[in-house]
Each structure stands twice: as C-alpha cells, then as structure tokens.
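We were asked to recover a plausible sequence for a given structure. The inputs and outputs are reproduced exactly as logged, with field labels preserved.

PROBLEM: sequence recovery
POSITIONS: 367
GIVEN STRUCTURE:
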C-alpha cells in the first residue's frame, strides 16, 4: 500500500551503495569544447566537461559558496565560473582560483575547493571514482588503487558499439537481472515463437575470482548466436563470463584470432534507480560494414526486452516484497549479495575481504 502522506508515486526500495570505486557517469564523446553536461551518479549531481588539454573533469554540481549548480555558470575550456558570485574553479582539482568580491586587503581562503572526483576516459565513457559518502576530497592514491575498468581487447583493430537503458529499480535488482540465466526463454523470445522443447538442462562450472566469480571458459551451445556467427571460421569457440564487484559483467568470446568482448555495467544513478550500459568490441567480420548495425539492432532489442520487463517488475518492487531466490538458477544472485556484503564488511572493519565462495561449483538449471 502507498505510504500515507507520501507525495507522488511510491518509489522502490533503496539499495546500499558500494563506494570507493569507478562508475561510468556518461558517454564521453558528448563532452567537447566549452560544453558542460550533467549526470546523476550514486545520488550525487555531477557536472562534467573536457578541458582544452583533453582531460575530463567531474565536479559535484554545487557551488561550495551558496549551493547553486556550477553547471548554471560558464566554462571557458580551462576554468569554471559560478553564475552567482563569479567564483572561479579549476575543474580537475576543484581548486578555487578567484573570488571576485575580495579586496586587496582580504586574504584568499586557503585550500578552498569544490568537490572534484577523479575522472578517466575508457571505451568512450567518463568513469568517475566515487569515494565514501561524506568523505572529504578524494586522494588520487585511493583512486589509483583500483584500475579504471575497460573491456578487454585482443588486437589494435576492432569495431565497437554501445547501448544504454534506464531501469526504474535499485542497482541490486539491475545486477541480478543481468546475471539471471532463467529469464531468457521468456523475456527474449516471443511466446508464440518459443518452443517448449528449446528449454533444456544446462550445466556450467563457476569459480571464485577476486571480487567476483567466473563462469568458466566453455564452448557456447551450438544453437546460440555467437556460435552461428563464429562457426563460419571453423575453429573452436570459447566463452568466458566474469562478474566483478561492484557492477561489472565481462563476456569474452574467442575463436582463433577472432574475438568479441563486452563490458556491461549497472550503475546506481540514485539509491533506488539505475542505468545499464553495454559496451561491445569485436574484430569478427571486421570488413562487413553492416555488422555494427546488425549487432546494435539485436543488442538494442535484447536490452529493451530486459528494460520493459524491469519497468513492469518495478511496479511490484514498490511494495518491497520479500524475494524467493531458488537453487540453482538464482545462485549467481545469491553470490552477488554475499560478495557485496563481504565487501561492505571489509570496508567497515578494515580487514581483508572474505570471499563467500571457497572453490569451484557446478550449477544446473533449465533454460
Ligand atoms: S554561489 Fe557560487 S559564487 Fe556564490
Ligand atoms: Fe536479459
């Protein structure tokens, strides 16, 4: 039931967020010239742009003076000027350089900063390192501890594409949806097309990896799309899928020197909403110019099918129901929750993270 006195539609339950890591804030190709763009990331309003020297910046979109969004002001390619009283900030460090109202007799406040976040460009995304909420300035050393995520590439020559969709549920539901093996025949095939006979038993080996788990390298099933596509090369095909905290799914398909690689992330925009981003790179059929369009078409169709389903699911999740995760199909979801808890515990206690899996596990399900 809607909470009495609450304004507007009921929003779904919030998730605990994982800080001290990199998240994609937005596509970086739109950040050019003197343009500033805004993005919501982990509930923090951000203003992003690119300096003349091509360095990206991400600042909290609030002037430390009196709180107006910095994005209301001006950026000249070097510095950002607040619209209200003209304070000037260097946007990569966040340092305040100028306060126009000060007289010659005033002393300039020392160490005055807007909140600036480490921001790096990979695979056409502006990745932002988000420190623990309420912590002061981010130290570059902290950000350097975890590498900026990137889809693996196996050669210099490749094509790529990206897709995105907003999901009206919290990041936990977005992530377990991403790793859910049992929804395929229902969400990704029309009911009038699906043959019950196409559902069959599957068996996959999983093993622990740092901060996550891996579906061990295996040959894709003979009727899957990558198999059909790569089958033309006549070499053995292997697939590896990794999940890595806080939000990443890496998939690598290899066939001799041909490869397809993707990095999918589910990023909390706020504690109760998220966005899925898929980046793919490949050298398969490199010379067929329409491959990019075909992959984008099918990728879009899959992502939209998931998005529509999760918009519907969000209707039910508004009532914060208890969930019923079953073995073995929901085991990856259980591992995700256990990994997340282990990481939050490690951050709280300062102890090394205890991985919830103690060895390889074989899962069986029908899909
Ligand atoms: S609010 Fe930004 S300079 Fe005053
Ligand atoms: Fe899906």
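RECOVERED SEQUENCE:
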């Amino acid at each position: 039931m809607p909470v009495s006195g609450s304004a507007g539609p009921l929003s779904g339950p919030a998730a605990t967020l994982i800080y001290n890591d990199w998240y994609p804030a937005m596509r970086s190709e739109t950040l050019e010239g003197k343009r500033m763009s805004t993005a919501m990331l982990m509930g923090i309003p951000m203003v992003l742009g690119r300096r003349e020297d091509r360095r990206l910046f991400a600042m909290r979109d609030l002037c430390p003076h009196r709180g107006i969004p910095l994005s209301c002001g001006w950026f000249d390619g070097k510095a950002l000027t607040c619209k209200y009283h003209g304070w000037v900030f260097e946007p990569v460090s966040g340092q305040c350089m100028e306060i126009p109202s000060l007289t010659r007799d005033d002393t300039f406040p020392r160490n005055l900063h807007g909140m600036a976040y480490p921001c790096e460009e990979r695979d056409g995304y502006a990745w932002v390192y988000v420190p623990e909420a309420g912590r002061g300035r981010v130290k570059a050393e902290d950000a350097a501890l975890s590498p900026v995520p990137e889809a693996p590439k196996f050669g210099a020559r490749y094509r790529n594409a990206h897709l995105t969709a907003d999901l009206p549920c919290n990041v936990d539901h977005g992530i377990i949806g991403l790793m859910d093996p049992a929804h395929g025949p229902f969400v990704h095939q029309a009911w009038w097309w699906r043959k019950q006979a196409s559902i069959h038993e599957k068996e996959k080996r999983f093993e622990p990896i740092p901060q996550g788990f891996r579906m061990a390298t295996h040959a894709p099933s003979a009727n899957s799309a990558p198999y059909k596509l790569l089958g033309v090369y006549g070499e053995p095909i292997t697939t590896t899928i990794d999940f890595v905290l806080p939000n990443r799914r890496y998939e690598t398909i290899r066939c001799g020197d041909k490869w397809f690689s993707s990095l999918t992330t589910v990023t909390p925009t706020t504690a109760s909403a998220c966005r899925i981003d898929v980046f793919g790179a490949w050298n398969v059929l490199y010379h067929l110019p329409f491959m990019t369009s075909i992959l984008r078409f099918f990728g879009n169709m899959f992502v939209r099918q998931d998005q529509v389903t999760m918009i519907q699911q969000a209707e039910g999740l508004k009532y914060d129901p208890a969930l019923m995760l079953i073995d073995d199909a929901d085991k990856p979801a259980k591992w995700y929750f256990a990994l997340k808890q282990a990481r939050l515990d490690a951050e709280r206690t300062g102890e090394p993270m205890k991985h919830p899996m103690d060895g390889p596990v074989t899962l069986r399900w029908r899909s």
